[in-house]
Amino acid sequence: MEMKKRINLELRNRAPEKVTELVLDNCRSSNGEIEGLNDSFKELQFLSMANVELTSLAKLPTLSKLRKLELSDNVISGGLEVLAERCPNLTYLNLSGNKIKDLGTVEALQNLKNLKSLDLFNCEITNLEDYRDSIFELLQQITYLDGFDQEDNEAPDSEDDDDDEGDEDDDDEENEAGPPGEYEEEDDEDDGASDLGEGEEEEEVGLSYLMKEEIQDEEDDDDYVEGGDEEEEGK
C-alpha cells in the first residue's frame, strides 16, 4: 500500500489534528519522499515510517510535539538537519539500517537538545573506530546509543516504567484507604458492644424467670394454708 493511501485510511474516522500516534511501516514511498503528511498533524507525538524506502526527509512537516520518530530500514544518507528544524522536541530517534556513514552526517543532530536516545544500529558508521565514544562526545545531550549508555547499561523499557507507575498508584490507593489497624479496632468495639447486648438480654431473662418462681411459690403457700384451715374446721 502506498504511504498516502495508508494515511487516508488512518484518517477515515478522525481528523489529523486529533492523531497522536501514526504507524506507516512497510508502506511504499513512490519517489523516496514523505507523502500525505502535513502541518495539520500538530498533536502527533509518535511517528513510525520503518521500511518505506525513504531517501530524503525534505518533505517532513513541522511536528512540534513529536517525541519519538522511527525511521529504521530506509535509504537515508543525509539531510538530518531537517529534524532539528521541524521536530525540535524529539527525545527518541531510530535511524538503524540506513546509509549513514560518517560523523559529519550525525553532527546535524546536535541541535536536537532534547534527544536522549539514538539508534544507528546496522548503519555503516558503526564500523568506525571508537564509534561509540565519538558519538557520545559529539552528541553530549544523548544518554543512550543503540540501546545502551556509556557504561553499557541497557536503556529501560518504557512499558516496564508504565507498570511501575501503575503499582505506585495502587500503593497510593491503599494508603488513602487508611491503615488496617483502624478497622480492626472498630471491629473489636463492635464485638464488645454485641457481647454486652447479649449479657443484658440474659440478665433480663433471668430476672423475669425469678419473678415467676416467686409468684408460683406464693401461690403454693396460699394453697397449703387454705388446706390446713379446712382440716381444722373438719375437726
Automatic annotation (TrEMBL):
PANTHER family named in the record: ACIDIC LEUCINE-RICH NUCLEAR PHOSPHOPROTEIN 32 (PTHR11375), ACIDIC LEUCINE-RICH NUCLEAR PHOSPHOPROTEIN 32 FAMILY MEMBER E (PTHR11375:SF5)
Compartment list: Cytoplasm; Nucleus
Keywords for this protein: Chaperone, Chromatin regulator, Cytoplasm, Leucine-rich repeat, Nucleus, Repeat
Family label: Belongs to the ANP32 family.
Protein name: Acidic leucine-rich nuclear phosphoprotein 32 family member
Principal location class: cytoplasm
Organism of provenance: Grantiella picta
InterPro entries per record: AN32, Leu-rich_rpt, LRR_dom_sf
One annotated GO biological process: regulation of apoptotic process
Biased composition (Acidic residues): 148-205, 215-235
Region (Disordered): 148-235
Pfam families on file: LRR_9
Gene Ontology molecular function: any one: phosphatase inhibitor activity
Gene Ontology cellular-component terms listed: cytoplasm; nucleus
Function comment: Histone chaperone that specifically mediates the genome-wide removal of histone H2A.Z/H2AZ1 from the nucleosome: removes H2A.Z/H2AZ1 from its normal sites of deposition, especially from enhancer and insulator regions. Not involved in deposition of H2A.Z/H2AZ1 in the nucleosome. May stabilize the evicted H2A.Z/H2AZ1-H2B dimer, thus shifting the equilibrium towards dissociation and the off-chromatin state. Inhibits activity of protein phosphatase 2A (PP2A). Does not inhibit protein phosphatase 1. May play a role in cerebellar development and synaptogenesis.
Source organism, top-level taxon: Eukaryota
